[in-house]
Amino acid sequence: MRVSPIVALLAAASLTASAPVPYPVVRPGIALRFPRDHGAHPLFRTEWWYVTGWLRTVDGADLGFQVTFFRSRPPTDPANPSRFAAGQVLFAHAALSDPRIGWLLHGERSARAGFGLAGAGTTDADVTIRDWRLRRYADGHWATQVAAPDFALALNFAPTKPPLPQGQGGFSRKGPQPDAASYYYSVPHLKVAGTVRRGGTSVAVTGEAWLDREWSSNYLQGDAQGWDWTGLNFDDGSALMAFRIRRKAGGTLWAGGSFRRADGTTTVLAPGDIVFRPLARWRSPVTGAVYPVKQALSVRLPDGVRRWVLTPLFAAQELDARRSGLPVYWEGAVRTAGGRGYLELTGYDRALTM
Amino acid sequence: MRAEPGLWSGRLALGWLIAGEWRFHPARFLVTAVAIAVGVALGFAVHLVNGSALASFDSAVRGVNGSADLSVKATSRLGFDERLYPRVALAAGVAEASPVVQLEARIGTARVTLLGLDILRAAAVTPTLIGVRPRGSDADGAAVFDEASVFLSRAALERSGAKLGAVVTAAANGRAVPLRIAGTLPGVADGSAVAVIDIAAAQWRFDRIGRLDRIDVKVADRPAADAALARMMPGDAVISTAQAQSLQGDALSRAYRVNLDMLALVALLTGGFLVYSAQSLSVVRRQRAFALLRTLGMPRGGVVAAVVAEGVAIGVIGSGIGLSAGYGLAWAAVHWLGGDLGAGYFRGAGAGLVFQPWAAIGFFAIGLLAAIAGSAVPARLAARAAPAAALKNAGDVLDPRQRVAWWPAAGLLIAGGVVSLLPPVAHLPLFGFAGMALLLAGGIAGVPWFARALLAPLARGAIRTVPRQLAIRHLHGAPGEAATALCGIVASTALMIAMATMVTSFRGAVDDWLGQVLSADLYMRTNAGASFDPATRTRLAATPGVARMAFGRQLALTIAPDRPAIALVARPQRGVEDPQFVLIARADALPTGLTPIWVSEPAQRLYRWNPGEVIRLPIGGGTRFAVAGVWRDYARQGGAVLIDEADYQRLTGDTGRDEASATLLPGSDAAAVTQRLRARVSPMLRGQVDITQPAVLRRFALTLFDRSFAVTYLLEAIAILVGLAGVAATMSAQTLAREREFGMLRHLGLTRGQLGAMLATEGAIVGLTGALAGIGLGLVLAQVLIHVINPQSFNWTMDTRIPVGTLVAVAAALTGAAAVTAVLAGRRATSRSAVQSVREDW
């Protein structure tokens, strides 16, 4: 479950727009087909390709990274013959977490699709915005190139496990209302190799990443404040995804997730199976938002309740993209006993509307 | 021990001398100080207003341009192909590129620049053009791609009178589109009326599919970007920078501003002459006092020091008053007339007054200098006089029998004539102004000779009445005094006559030209970029009562990014005589196979496009044309080019027309045809079409002309007033100084009436002489204005027309003013009893 704040923002636009645009509704009972579903689904309102992971440089330093491409279909008039018509808009964020720096380095791109400058292929994953790109090759491996002001990433991702459909075979509910849902699959345990360039120097890196793919037309309910999400790759080959959507009035509105063991058997988690409990908070000196950056996660599995403590690589992994008119969220590398992954915390400076 | 006591030790005497003079003649000092103040005030005010106008023009340009590093701009409002955009975006050295659709639009009655932007690109390149919704930046997203949302700058919001959230109708390019005001543009500078909508909506709603007007560029590597972009420029786009834009604004009005500055300096110069006249007389009057001090041991420099110190005092007081008055004047001018002083150069750019300390210091110094120079010249003359002789004789030091040299004046006049013929410097007629200064100096230097030449035959002739004889003998016998009085009169009259002649010639030429070109019966014109499509044109041409109808297109064409755009006018030229264009030159033979065009006179002068030459214009991908002729045009200072309508359509593919002239059938009623024409225009277009009759256009044009010369008229009037004040001051001072002479004349039996007649004659003769000399010199200066300054500044030529009425009036006013002042002063001087007046003599 990865709902980007940016996409949330654009989706909000549709609520106020004058002309109603018929978006497809997310319904249960579909079967994901690959590689088609790696590609874009342009009729849906929002979609994303979200890669997070841990990297290790040749000299043994740990880094966290995030590369995200969003696709949005704003509620524009399809009759507009202009090549600039914002029928499809693409956004991308990239961030690098280096504990020796102590804060997040990040960069972004955005463009309307068209003119050969930006686009998202529909037959397989291939998203580009100018010089930024994320694509999947015919041999099954993925690759991305991004260049931010302070760093550049050129990474290859080799799948070691099959995709993990979330929810009911890829239909993932987001709230008590049945139509608040998305199509959702993840690809855990991606083997990473590539380079990270900072300043004038490039270093070779290896690591492990997690890909989230999600598309939907109707996301959060009106009483949702934001969410906590985590995706964890365990060293034993198992993988855990868990999220909870927080209610504006406090408490949990909805929760969900899945646990896949090394042998491939998967347990889908219901709202009552997941508890996030804050252990330590960090106050952003920039925005004043207080994030529960260290959390205890309890998950009820058929063989009993398992508990993991999520410890951040460092606390200041807030992504402040207000410069480009976008909200603030926390997207950080976390480690836990026997595994590593990412934690996403949204709606902590103010409520996100969806 | 020093042989001669120093200046310092004489300071007490000097102090008395100056203070005494001030105590007894405060009005005279005040008048001279005011003369300086007027000059300084005018100069400073004009300079301030010009500076403020330029600053506001700059800020308006920045407001619309959003301060991009550089821009690719369409050369005309036809725009360029949007497929240039991805090439620019990916060009070497380019960090970001933001495509822009730019339209001149109206919201209600407010003129705004409507920009169609891709907010995602503009955010990185021109962030000042990003709209903000009233609830804060977090809600930005809601209207980002909404095709019906518009963001308005503060000025646009104020001028349209609409509220946030209201739905307004924006008219541009012949379309009227309802838009909801979603927010404001806080980054746009005050005074710029800008509206921003989504680029796709702009292309679609305002019929600009496939076209862009501008690509704003943020560069990563300037030299690389410049090189890469230069290679890919199509014929209908140029690379422009903020600097080039600023130069364009500067070039647009520079000549006008320099001319105003010069006019203001003229007023200052006249003030300087006034100081000179006043100080000369004051020195003459105090010659005996100076002589006494000299014999008592004051050094020669003491006299100079005393008079110059008075000059400094006059200068400091006058300049000080002038600066504050100038600031107030500038404020009022900007407030009431606008930053371009009504000349229409910077429409839509609201000006705020900016104080310029360096200019203030400069004008203070110039005022001070004029006062000191005006005092130093007579002071040196006085110091040269031998003390013993001066002690006895307070009369004129010039001997009337001595011949006055004519050659310095002739030399200066010739030099002035030669210098004015030199070519302009940086499009400014600097040598023309230098020539005028030399001519003026020559004219003034020649005044004593002229006065003598004029009076000699009168003095020789037999004059019957005693007062007249006395008057002429006095003037002839004391030529120095008369000459001093005349200098100021001649200087101010000459400049005033020169300006009046130039403006009369210009206005007459414009009036005649309007009469020639406005030969049709009705004129139609679209506003807000609307156009008549071919179907509408056919319908209009078939209107009952219309004999002929000619349609035209007029658009601004950028030849170079740092120069004002020229106007491209497309009208039917093949096989018809188009009376709208008065040819003043024609090519003998044209190169074959090239499209002919006709250039306006300013275009010919600005770009050196002479008949028969082959030129390239940035339309239709950069086409070569042959210049077939030159036509007269007083309307478009930046130049204009006329092309045949069919050629235009072939080259650009543009089928729209935005103006039309209709010739009516004999006997048809213009008002009725106007109504029928209006009825034949589609309802959407109806509100965007103006139909006018030539008389209205002519009146409008002349009103505009007078408006743009309003400040000239004002400055001229002030120069006249300063000149008249100078005459009055000089005449009265001279008369008062002759008290003893009047006493003696009374003793000899002259009645007071006869004395009055004598003074009136003297005054009238001085005034008339000054007027004649001033008018003669002014007509010469006018030739420089008309044939050098005007063509070099504004690039149009004209024939001289002499404002006979003004000349007669000026001569009469000067003669009358001099006579009346002399009589009034004489009445005071003769009021004491004759015995008393004579007794004062020793």
UniProtKB/TrEMBL annotation, chain A:
Start and end residues of each AttH domain: 46-217
UniProt signal peptide: 1-19
Entry's transmembrane regions: none
UniProt keyword Signal, yes or no: yes
Family annotation (InterPro entries): AttH-like_dom_sf, AttH_dom
Matches recorded under PANTHER family: BLL1000 PROTEIN, HYDROLASE
Name of the protein in its database record: Carotenoid 1,2-hydratase
Species this protein is from: Sphingomonas glacialis
From TrEMBL, chain B:
Major place of residence: membrane
ABC3 transporter permease C-terminal domain mapped to chain residues: 263-386, 717-833
Membrane spanning residue stretches: 29-49, 262-284, 305-338, 358-383, 404-422, 428-451, 482-503, 713-736, 757-782, 802-825
Bilayer topology annotation: Multi-pass membrane protein
A Pfam family the protein falls into: FtsX
InterPro entries: ABC3_permease_C (IPR003838), Lipoprotein-release_system (IPR051447)
GO terms under cellular component: plasma membrane protein complex
Compartments reported by the entry: Cell membrane
A GO biological-process term: lipoprotein localization to outer membrane
Record has Transmembrane as a keyword: yes
Record keywords, A-Z: Cell membrane, Membrane, Transmembrane, Transmembrane helix
PANTHER family (UniProt xref): LIPOPROTEIN-RELEASING SYSTEM TRANSMEMBRANE PROTEIN LOLE
Record family assignment: Belongs to the ABC-4 integral membrane protein family. LolC/E subfamily.
Name of the protein this chain belongs to: FtsX-like permease family protein
Source organism (scientific name): Sphingomonas glacialis
